[in-house]
Amino acid sequence: MSASPEMSPAPAGLASRQAAVAILSQVLRRKRPLDQAAAEILAGSSLAPRDWGFARAIAAASLRRFGQLEALIRAFVPKTPPPHKAGPTLEILIAGAAELLFLHVPAHAAVDAANKLAQADSKAVHFKALINAVLRRVADEGPSVLAQQDAAALNAPDWLFERWIANYGEAQTRLIAEAHLAIPPLDLTLKRADDPYTDFDGALRLAPGRVRLTDAGKIENLPGFLDGRWWVQDFAASLPATLLGDVAGRTVVDLCAAPGGKTLQLASAGARVTAVDAAPQRLALIADNLARTKLSAELIAADARDWRPDAPSPFVLLDAPCTATGTIRRHPDLPWLKSAADLVNAESLQSELLDAAGAMTAAGGTLVYAVCSLEPEEGVEQIESFLRRRTDFARHGLGPDEVFDSTFITLKGDLATLPLYWAENGGMDGFYAARLKRLL
Ligand SMILES: C[S@@+](CC[C@H](N)C(=O)[O-])C[C@H]1O[C@@H](n2cnc3c(N)ncnc32)[C@H](O)[C@@H]1O
User: Taking Cα atoms as reference points, which of 370, 272, 276, 280 lies closest to residue 314?
Assistant: First the structure.
């Protein structure tokens, strides 16, 4: 896994470009997640790691800037031919333009490779002249067209951009959307908060036990990977588990736990963790991380709506599945995969999971609910409606010093981070979390 795939060096590989175009087709046409599509295409290819990095870089840049690139290409070819006639012509154009404008590949190399890609495809071959002409124009005129574009608005789908304006106002929405255009740094949570982690040049210590790396390269090659000194976790994602307070020696039920960043935090804080997730293949990721970090937790594959602990727990963490719109900078495919219908489906699952989490919380116990979403329907509105359903729970708002920066705390006392926070240091994912106490 490469931490900053869009930063990889650019060898002149046709196979890399072929893989990038195949990944783009999977994401844009089949609505498959980038990571999944990339993993499958990599498994079926014989690309060397460096060429693979280039393929991912092209695909990621194409998706991060998809709105801009599509608008640019449509300005030159108002009606791009449909895929049943033209095969991957649009993907070849988007990927070629991404190379030219965002990966700074020399024009002759990018255009020549696009011509070869078209030549190799039985449908796109009929559009080879068009691809050649359009990409030459992109190379010449693209930078000045780009300078006139509204990048923030174009690279977010209208339905999301409009709802962010309604919820956050135009100025903040623009900053959120702009934050999604930057390649995010790699954040590590250290197993021991007092580990100085000075063995990576330029590591930025964000807070105790949290470091940030830029140009980190392959995760497996970073100092401390094999010794299990850390795990990868966005800085904002490391905050919700801390809202449970001191869990040393206590039982914590960690619902929707995979891939396990929060499980590892709780286990390293000395808790006896029961980690529940519905996806066994994702639980295996927690098992790997526990083994690597020499931490332990009980792992249970179950639907958290049905499963119950033997006895109600004093601490319950529910990190609910969501639209994940807070993580777009790390998942540039998300905007093009999600729809308003996904939001509605996520909301009803979240409310069922909250009811289940409520049933697992002991009297006097603490329940923390978290989502990596910017949408209030998945965050604060879930909590408001849970508190109306369950009058035996009350919000236990955060104190001003609990999470390193009081900007992260809402007027109601919940945690809410936005991708634009700490922008000068590389930003953070958007997370929402609320802490509730069970009264009776
Ligand atoms: C946001 S991710 C959790 C991230 C994790 N807590 C961490 O810190 O690494 C949501 C997880 O919920 C799981 N999930 C979805 N529906 C579930 C359900 N009904 N019961 C249990 N787990 C579920 C998914 O498999 C996914 O792993």
Answer: 272
